[in-house]
Amino acid sequence: MQGGGENSIHFEDSIMMTVVVDKVDGKVRIVVNGSTQIADVTVQSNAKIEAQSGAEINKVTLSEALPQASNIQLVGSFETVNVIAKSIVVDIPTGSIKDLNVDSAAAGTKLDLGREASIVTLIMNAAINVAGQGTVQSATVNAEGISMEKPASNMKVGSDVAQEVKLKIGGKDVAANDAKQPASTPSASGSLSNDSSNSDSGSTGSGSTGSGNNSGEQPGGGIDIHPLPTGDVPVLSSVAKKATVTESVYAVSDMDGWVYIVESGTTRSQIGLEEAVRGGIGKKEAVKANQGVYIDTTGLSRTKVTFLVIALSAEGQVSYPEFIKLYAGKDDALEYSGTSQSGRTNSSIIFNFNKEIQNHLPDLEALKAAITFSVNHEPFQPLHAEDEIRLYANSLEVVFAVPYSGEANKLHLNASVIQDTYGNVYDREVTTSDIKAGLNVRLVSDKRVFAVGDEIAVRVNQRTTVYLVPSAVRFNTLFDVENEVVAKRGTKVTVAEQEPVQDVMIPTADLTPGSYSVLVWPGNSVHITLQ
Q1: What is the DSSP letter of 498?
Q2: How far is Cα 340 from Cα 322, in angstroms, rounded to an integer?
Q3: Cα separation of 510 and 491, whole Å?
Q4: 89-102/110-124 β-pairing
C-alpha cells in the first residue's frame, strides 16, 4: 500500500493475509471495521491504524524500514505488535494490545500510552521510554536504560540482564524486581470505545439522538459543575462491545462498589447514574473488587443502542466509561433510531438503526441512488458521484466529498433498501430532521508539539468554547469536558459571537506535559503534545 492519505483507506468485511503500508510522503490512515480479518500488517511508513469493534488484526510489525522519528498510532484491539524500528514514537491513545514485543534493535523508541490504553504483556529487549498513564499488566525487562512513567502491575527481569538491573520509574532509579504497582493502583485493561473523540478531527459529540441528563449543556455556554471526587478511580475490564437487550452484560471493576449500564449521554456522576436507574434508562449491580458481575439489561431501550458501562466505587469515585452497543433482538422490529453527525469537518451524516444492518439492494451503487439530499430547504437531489456510502454495524453513513454548511440540511432514505442480519427489511422511508453544520476547530499552524507556557493558536467556524484537555479522557457528555477544566487538568477559552474567524489563543502555562486534545463540543478534536 503506497497511496492514500489520513482519511482514505477503509477495509470492511474483508479477509486478508498480508498488508504492507509503505507511503513515501505523509501519513496514511487505515480503518479496519465490520468483520474484517487481517493476519499480518507490516508498517514501513508513518501510519494510523484503527481496528474497530468486530474487526481483527492478528499481528502488526513496525518494520526496521521505518525512518527514525516516525509516528505510528494504533487505536483499537490488537493481538500482537512487534516493534523492530529504532527511535520511533508509537502512540496508543486508547484500546488494548495483548502482546507487545520490543526488539533489541528498537532502542530509543517511545511508547505513549493514553489513560484508556492497555498492554497485557510487554517484553522490552531494548532501552525504550514507556510514557503516559495507560496500563501495563505484565512487563519483562531485558535491557538496561528503560524508563516508564508508571510501573506495570507485574514486573519481571528476563534472563538477558542482571537480576539487579535498574530502570527509571517516574524519573527515579528503581530496581526492576521492586518496580510494581501498589495493590490499590488500577491494573485492569481498558478497551476501545465506539466514539472517536480521541482521533484527529474526530467527533466529540453526536447529533440529534443523544439521551440522558444533559440539561444545560449548550455549545459555548459551559455548565455549572463541581469536580468529581478525587483519588484513584475504578477501572473496568472484560466488558463486551455489543450484546442484545435482555442479555446480561459482564463486567469487572477493580474496586468494591457498583457497576451501571446506562444510556449514552447520562452524566458521569453518582447523581446522574442513580437518576438513570430510577428513570428506567439504566441498571446497576453491586460488585466486589476484581470479581465479575452480570448486569441484567431486560427493560432497557430497544432503540437507543449506544450504552455506557460505568463503575462507581464505595467512596464515590467514577470510572471512565466503556461503550457498548445493545441491539434489539431477532424478533424485535427493525427500527430507525436517529441520525448522528460526524465532527469531521461536516463531511458525514449517519442513519442509525436498532440492529446491525445490511444492504437489501444489489450493490452499494443502488443503495446510494436510494438516498437524496436537501440543502437548506432546497428540493431533494441525488448524491454527487464523489460522495460515498458506508455500511457498518447498525449504521448507514453518507460521506460527502464537499462538506455541507448551513442550518437546514436533510437526508432522505427510500423504503425497503435496508435489512437486518436476520433478513427483516425496513419498509418505511426516512427523512431526517434539519441538520445544522457542526462546530469545527483547527490549528492555525501545522505545529503539533508545544512547550508548556506556549499559547496555541486555533480557529473555529462558529461561536463556541474551545477546550484543551487530556487526550486520554473519554468524553460522554460536556460534564466530562468541563470537569477536566474544573479539576485544573485542562483549560478553556470562550469565543465571542462577533469574532468566530479570528485566531483564538489557548494558554498552557498551568498545565503539565502530556498528550492533549483541542476540541469543541459537539464537534471535532485535534491532538497536540505539551513538553
Answers
A1: T
A2: 20
A3: 9
A4: parallel
Do residues 63 and 88 touch, judged by C-beta distance below 8 A? no
* Chain CA centroid to CA 439, Å: 19
Tell me the three cell numbers of residue 206: 453526536
d(CA 231, CA 316): 10
> Using CA atoms, how far apart are residues 99 and 119, in angstroms rounded to an integer?
7
Q: For the segment 177-202, what is each residue's pLDDT rounded down to a tens digit?
A: 776 554 333 222 222 223 333 333 34
140, amino acid identity = T
Residue length, the chain? 531
Distances (CA, A) of 271 to 164, 213, 252, 319, 320: 49, 10, 22, 14, 16
The amino acid present at 116, given as its one-letter code, is E
List strand residue ranges (DSSP E) for 170-265, in order: 172-175, 236-237, 242-244, 248-253, 257-263
Mapped onto helix, strand or coil, the DSSP state of residue 458 is strand
- What tens digit of pLDDT does each residue of 463-483 get? 888 999 988 776 667 888 888
Instruction: For residue 121, report the phi and psi dihedrals to the nearest 5 degrees.
Output: -130, 125
Kindly list the distances between the CA atom of residue 204 and the CA atoms of 133, 473, 477, 517, 526, in Å, as whole numbers in the listed order.
Answer: 21, 11, 9, 10, 10
**How many other C-beta atoms are found inside a 10 Å radius of the C-beta of residue 402?**
10
Can you give the pTM of this predicted structure?
A: 0.52
Which helix (H) or strand (E) element contains residue 275? helix 270-278
Cis peptide before 522 (omega within 30 of 0): yes
The 3-state secondary structure of 100-154, one letter per residue: EEECCCCCCCEEEEEEEEEEEEEEECCCCEEEECCEEEEEEECCCCCEECCCCCE
Q: In what order do the strands lie in the sheet with 371-374?
A: 381-382, 371-374, 410-413, 430-431
